[in-house]
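4.2 Preliminary Data

To establish feasibility before requesting continued support, the project team ran the inverse folding procedure on a target of 486 residues. The structure was first converted into the token representation described in Section 3, and no sequence information of any kind was made available to the design step. The complete token record follows.
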């Protein structure tokens, strides 16, 4: 049974892991994976499209007037070495969904069980359950070869009608989501994952089931979620000298005050889905991605952007970022290549993991890492070294909890003697072909070193601790940090 227990990169998942590590259900109840190369009476419904050698993004809605995307970078891997989705026309996608359903009926016509094939790049399966002995660990923990093989080989998952209620329900769930997607594409309407869940709460049971199925279908047809006409409610905010023009001709002035009709929030604009964006104009010299909304609002309220000689754009995903926020930061990195993107995170395990989410992607979206990972983003703080350099009071340091230490150890965990710390985690995020290059990069080595220093100190520290020495100490901290970049 395929286990979908490791695809969430958020605090809720970690809570589940620590509170119930011995009983994590397979919420989709899939049939076992089958190699795509193996013989089968059921052909796959679509052919996975390999990414072209040049840069190709999800953002086809962006006008030709915008800045051309750079195709190469000294710090970024080539597109041919990372997984990415491909935009498809409405007619092509509808035809492929029809082919999938036709295959089901074809199998029935020749007397076979009704089966729904799902071709995808399966996620690496890691044992979350802690073993009580070294022998059990050796038996259950996958090697690096296992992770690489799992990540790089296409597989076909078969969902079928059977005597098992769980498997039949899973098939019904996929068919229901496929139906909603087909209707949305056919009638040119947008759906949210929340809407899809509420259409049949009894069938889906919980929102996470719909989220996984949508990602599976996106992976299966090798298209970005926007091609499925499915979006998630925006939560990320942006503020600064940046103007966004949307398809409906609406202009979002991200530095406007809350008395203008264009502003969605009194301190920042809600980041729109990237497929709605036509053009972006930016006068700032850099972008600062802020982990927490509270820090973002503080910087906006004191006029931090306006106080800089060279202004900046502030972005927050309010913790772990949603897809729209990640796509917007990616858009910025490819259209404004000369402007640095800097990460301002708490000096704790979650802050480092959120930074890694922006920089290297997530396990859940590993099949589209090239279009989402922002490899150029740099961590400016809060680091363990900053605690001494900026004289953070010891009383502002918080002891690491058992959960914190477990998360740090998971972020650098190795599975065999030949593995470099962080290697398997990069592979799970989609870097199975460029893992050696990325491991050798200064940014990844600094990231691993920071995790180890955090563990050694046995304490974490939040950004707000900088203001313990004065209400504007955070501002002074940022100005000193930014001097290197602008």
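Position-by-position output of the design step:
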């Amino acid at each position: 049974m395929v286990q979908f227990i490791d695809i969430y990169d958020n605090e809720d998942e970690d809570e589940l892991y620590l509170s119930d590590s011995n009983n994590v259900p397979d919420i989709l109840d899939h049939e076992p994976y089958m190699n795509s190369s193996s013989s089968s009476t059921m052909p796959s419904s679509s052919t996975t499209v390999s990414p072209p050698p040049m840069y190709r993004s999800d953002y086809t809605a962006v006008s030709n007037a915008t800045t051309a995307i750079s195709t190469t970078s000294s710090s970024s891997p080539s597109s041919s070495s990372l997984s990415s989705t491909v935009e498809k026309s409405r007619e092509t996608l509808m035809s492929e969904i029809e082919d999938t359903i036709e295959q089901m009926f074809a199998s029935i016509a020749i007397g076979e069980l009704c089966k729904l094939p799902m071709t995808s790049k399966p996620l690496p399966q890691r044992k979350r359950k802690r073993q009580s002995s070294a022998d059990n660990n050796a038996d259950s923990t996958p090697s690096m070869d296992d992770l690489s093989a799992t990540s790089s080989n296409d597989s076909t998952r078969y969902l079928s009608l059977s005597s098992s209620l769980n498997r039949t329900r899973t098939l019904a769930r996929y068919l229901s989501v496929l139906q909603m997607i087909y209707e949305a594409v056919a009638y040119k309407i947008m759906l949210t994952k929340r809407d899809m869940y509420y259409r049949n709460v009894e069938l889906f049971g919980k929102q996470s089931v719909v989220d996984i199925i949508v990602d599976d279908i996106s992976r299966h047809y090798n298209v970005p979620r926007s091609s499925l006409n499915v979006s998630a409610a925006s939560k990320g905010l942006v503020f600064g000298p940046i103007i966004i023009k949307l398809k409906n001709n609406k202009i979002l002035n991200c530095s406007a005050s809350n008395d203008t009709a264009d502003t969605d929030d009194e301190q920042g604009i809600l980041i729109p889905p990237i497929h709605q964006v036509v053009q972006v104009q930016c006068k700032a010299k850099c972008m600062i991605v802020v982990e927490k909304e509270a820090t973002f609002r503080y910087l906006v309220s004191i006029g931090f952007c306006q106080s800089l000689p060279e202004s900046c754009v502030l972005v927050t995903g309010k913790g772990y970022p949603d897809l729209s926020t990640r796509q917007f930061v990616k858009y910025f990195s490819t259209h404004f290549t000369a402007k640095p993107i800097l990460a301002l995170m708490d000096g704790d395990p979650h802050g480092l993991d959120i930074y890694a989410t922006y920089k290297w992607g997530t396990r859940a979206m590993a099949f589209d890492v090239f279009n989402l990972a922002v490899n150029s983003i740099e961590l400016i703080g809060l680091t363990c070294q900053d605690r001494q350099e900026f004289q953070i009071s010891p009383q502002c340091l918080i002891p690491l909890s058992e959960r914190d230490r477990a998360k740090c150890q998971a972020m650098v965990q190795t599975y065999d003697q030949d593995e470099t710390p962080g290697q398997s985690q990069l592979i799970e995020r989609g870097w199975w072909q460029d893992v050696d290059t990325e491991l050798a990069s200064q940014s990844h080595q600094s990231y691993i070193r920071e995790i180890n220093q955090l563990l050694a100190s046995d304490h974490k520290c939040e950004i707000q601790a900088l203001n313990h020495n004065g209400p504007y100490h955070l501002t002074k901290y940022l100005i000193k940090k930014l001097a290197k970049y602008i």
